[in-house]
Design brief:
single chain; 166 residues; three-stranded antiparallel sheet
Length: 166
Amino acid sequence: MGAVSTEGEAGTAPAVVRICAECGQEFQQRRRGRPSVYCRPACRQRAWALRQARATLDATPSAEPAPPAASTPPPSDLEVTLPGTSAPLPRAPGLIAPATTEVRVPTDVRGWVSLLKQLRSQLNDPGSDVAKRPWEHARLYDSLGQALTALDAATPGGLAWLERND
C-alpha cells in the first residue's frame, strides 16, 4: 500500500519500507524488480485464496435455498454441493470426520488395549490413512510418550517395576 523512505547506508539509495496488503506488517522493499505488495509468500497465498473465495461467492445465485424439511434425516457425512449442481462433491477419505461420529473414550483397560490394537493394525496396514501419513507420526509418538509417562506415574513402583515383575 504505502511506501516510506528511510535513510540507507552511506553511498546507497534509501531503503523503502512498505506495508503488507494482507497482514499490515511493515517490510523492507527489495532493491530490484517489481515492488512487492506482500511481506512474505504466505500472505500472498492467503490473499489469492481470499480473492478466489470472494469470486466464488460473487458467482453464486443470490436466492437462498429453502431449509431442509424437518423429516429429512441429517446427512451421515459432511457434504459440499457447488451452486448449480445437485450432486455433493466427493470428500477425501480420512480428511474430514463424519458429521455424526461420536468419539467414545475407553473407560477400562480392556477398551484401551482394544483401541491400541486397532492403532497397531492401522500402522501395519500400508493402505491405511494412518500409515500413509508419516508426517503425522511424530504427533502419535508424542501422545504415546505422554501416555507412557502418565502410566509410569500411576503405577506403584513405576514402569520399571512392571518390567521386573512381568
